[in-house]
Amino acid sequence: RRAGGDGRVKPMNRTRETPHRAAREPNETHKTTQACSGHGTCGTFDECICYPNWQEADCSGRTCPFVPAHVDTPKGDLDGSADALSGTSTTVIAGSTVYPHGTTEQYPLMVDSAGGSLTNTGHAYAECGNKGICDRGSGECECFPGYAGAGCQKATCADPTCSGHGICMNAQNLAAQDHDNVYNLWDAEVGFSCLCEPGYSGPTCASKMCKYGIDPLYYDDDVMAVRAPTARVSFSVGNLTGTKAVGDAAAFGAARKSFLEGTYAIKFYDAFGEDYETAPLSVGAKCPEVVAALEGMANDVVPKHGVACTMRGYTKSDKPVNGKGPGLQTVAYDLVFEENPGDLKPIEVNAYLDGERPTVYLADGNSTDQEFNVDIDVFPNWKGISGEFVDYFPSICHGVQFMVAKTPQNERTLGAAFTDSNSGLSADEEKLLKACLGDADGNADNNLEVYNWDYGTPNSTNTPHIVKLAPTDDSKSGMYDAGTFNLVWYGRANDNADASTNKFYFSGLPTSDTNKKFAVFPTSGVATVLATNKTAVTARFDRGATKVYTSYDTSCPELGIGHINHETIMNACLNKGDKVFLFNNRFDTADAGYGDGDGLTDAEVDQSATAGNMYEVVKVGVDAPSASTGTTEDRFYFVVDKAINWDGSATAARSAFRGSVMDEGDTSGATAGTQLVGIHSIVKFEPGPTSYEFVQQCSGRGLCNGDDGLCECFTGYTGDNCDQQSALAV
Phi/psi at 642 (nearest 5 deg)? Predict the structure, then answer.
């Protein structure tokens, strides 16, 4: 302003200017942005270019999350050509908002990050995983029933609460709960299922299970016996240095702790897998106290008179190293759970009743010092017998009974025991036995003689006969003296000898009592030795272990043993759930059969009867090479469901199996053939159609009401588990 003559302030003159275009751009940008719903810009031909995660013509629709599709689907005629749909290699609508790199009209083209095509691959990324509909207003997926997650990426449990009787878990975690298995497929974290608590079943854990029992028609004659769950429990003084014997005063001095003291409890698992624990037991408890503790558990899970106990060791030392009076050094007892049938999870000993500190310990009988190197062993199959739900050997060879004898040293390549006419097997019984054994390999076309049977001899087949040898009614000690499993071959040790010298050989010696008679129970299943005539697929394992190390990857796909050519390496592969036997029969390095070329020792023969346990494979795996792999093969393994009750840790160099292709599996970098592997054969068992599930809910003689867990017995049967026959039950 400036002052005029009149003293008033007058405004200054201004020049009126026309604004530049740049001054109008903010207003135009505002208009074009609003035209695209505020989520894009208006481009050429008034077409909106949407911001990321927005779509539709005016950018008003949100894009929902993309996740790996549960099911891949074609997208149809995207380019509006009305022609045949283009193939997976043809990309259309490249540069679109949803598919900036283009997509295909047919099934998605699966490529890697370098653009290379992938075969046998699926589950391309799709909006809402192809299992939901996108709400364009909110950008949220409306998932189809059974699916959940921001992108419908989870196949949920039918009831997320699992009816209050389980936990909803993904496949990866479910596998980890099952013996630490690994699940690495695409849906490891996608597929969900209920892990039910013991006693409940069904997809939502809503069905309450009923009490198990033995089918009363299973043992309605004298020849049948029940394989009930068993266990050997033992406590012994551990070797503290690993080099000196217990009681070696010169080596250990006055400080040697050599007496068992403390308390423990037994953990028992019922047929549902529910665990129960006894009241604390003194380490020196004998059978009466053990039985009372087991029968005193909750819910009468072990009923009165339901468990038999036999002491197998109870030793004390009268010359303590330091202290006065005798001290306890060994306790062992056998248990038979006669009223808890089935293949139960093995019992456990809880020796940590105070938490992390062991409550079974060693003392010197004089001071308060303690050491904790107590050897505690629990074997669920100490005598070669464990419980079972299914009898895979339900039929008997009628008219055949015989005794067995220990095989002479020069014939032990064929087994630990044999029977012939001198052991009560008459000529007529031999014929009946041949006809009864029948086919061994599942192929009747190669059967021999008028008996229509397979010899099962070591050099002629990889599918030997397998039988159950059970004491006859006159010889068995009771209802639960159920017999043991054995491989059986027919032949002779000297191939040059006359065929009249052929006899039946068994892998185990069931008894040293040559007057005890046995009946034979064959199977319709097939036993296959994994090793071929050229390849020694062998095993090694420690006594008390569940992990079995093998000379090859028995799951087959690794190291060139593909499913196409695995038969050149082994006769069968192992998978989770398979049944296997680990008989004490060494793969013969002299190529004279399945037995050891040098023959079994007397000690090995004596323990061979208990080696015929049936195990279930719960895991098959391959470990990374270790520092000792070059010396001893330790990469390939499988895990079984029960502790192995005999020592199979013997090894031999791969070169001992020359004449085979076994050394081709030695990829550890060791000097050719020097790597040590196990020597014991592995027998896979595939059950046959005549198997008898004799332990079931409601004993197989009623229906389980899943609402209340009570049995509804069929006419003629009664009891809380329908295991009693009664003419009055109508």
Answer: -140, 155
Is the pLDDT at 249 greater than 50? The verdict is: no
560 pLDDT more than 50: no
The rounded distance, in Å, linking the Cα atoms of 54 and 692 is 63
Q: What is the mean pLDDT of the chain?
A: 83
CA dist 327 and 260 (Å) reads 7
Average pLDDT score over residue span 408-415: 79
**Closest to 695 measured CA to CA, from 270, 110, 253, 381:** 270
Mean pLDDT of 1-21: 43
Q: How far is the C-alpha of 407 from the C-alpha of 507, rounded, in Å?
A: 10
Which residue, among 303, 305, 360, 364, has the nearest Cα to 331 in the 3D structure? Answer: 360
Spell out the SS3 assignment of 189-231: CCEEEEEECCCEECCCCCEECCCEEECCCCCCCCCCCCCCCEE
Residue whose entry in the numeric block shows the structure tokens 């013991």: 198
Tell me the C-alpha distance between 238 and 254, whole Å: 17
- Through-space distance between the first and last CA atoms of the chain, rounded to whole angstroms: 120
Residue 317 three-state SS: strand
Q: pLDDT tens digits, residue range 259-271? A: 888 999 999 999 9
| 684-715 residue pLDDT tens | 999 999 999 999 999 999 999 999 999 999 99
Please report which residue ranges of 106-248 form alpha helices under DSSP H: 171-177
Alpha carbon distance 390, 392 (integer Å): 6
Residue-by-residue DSSP string for 465-494: EEEEEEE-TTT-SSTT---EEEEEEEE-S-
Note the pTM of the prediction, 2 decimals.
0.84
Both tokens assigned to 659: 């004449």
Residues in the chain: 730
**CB crowding 405-417: b at 16 or more within 10 Å, else e:** ebbeeebbbbbbb
**Residue of 7, 19, 18, 54 lying closest to 33 (CA atoms):** 54
Q: How far apart are CA 330 and CA 313, in angstroms?
A: 6
Parallel, antiparallel or unpaired: strands 465-471 and 676-678 = unpaired
* pLDDT (average), residues 127-146: 95
- Tell whether the model's pLDDT for residue 13 goes beyond 50: no
Contact 88, 106 (CB under 8 A): yes
Residue from 217, 201, 193 nearest 705 by CA:
201
3-class secondary-structure state, position 155: strand
The two tokens of residue 56 are 């539709």
Sort residue 61 into left (φ over 0), alpha (ψ -120 to 50) or beta: beta
- Residue 631 in this model has a pLDDT that exceeds 80: yes
Residue 365 confidence (pLDDT): 59
Higher pLDDT, 442 or 632: 632
d(CA 65, CA 683): 51
Would you say 396 and 471 are in contact if contact means Cβ atoms under 8 Å apart? no
With 0-12 CB in 10 A as exposed, 13-18 as middle and 19+ as buried, what is 20? exposed
State the alpha helices, DSSP H only, in 399-466: 427-437
Which segment of 126-135, 363-372, 488-497, 519-528 scores lowest on mean pLDDT?
363-372
Rounded to the nearest 5 degrees, what angle is found at the Cα of 582, between the Cα atoms of 671 and 341? 150
Structure tokens at 716: 């003629």
Q: Which residue, 513, 492, 433, 424, is CA-closest to 467?
A: 433
Measured between alpha carbons, how far is 469 from 472 in angstroms, rounded to an integer? 9
Cα separation, 305 vs 565, whole angstroms: 55
pLDDT tens string 484-513: 899 888 888 776 778 788 889 888 888 888
d(CA 683, CA 554): 12
Categorize the per-residue pLDDT at 325 as very low, low, confident or very high, splitting at 50, 70 and 90. Answer: low
**390 backbone dihedrals φ, ψ, rounded to 5°:** -120, 130
The vertex-15 CA angle with 9 and 20, nearest 5°, equals 140
- Residues 6 or more apart whose Cβ sits within 8 Å of residue 28: none
Give the β-pairing of 54-55 and 61-62: antiparallel
Secondary structure (H, E, C), 621-670: EECCCCCCCCCECCCEEEEECCCCCCCECCEEEHHHHECECHHHHCCCCC
Instruction: In whole angstroms, give the CA distance from residue 709 to residue 719.
Output: 14
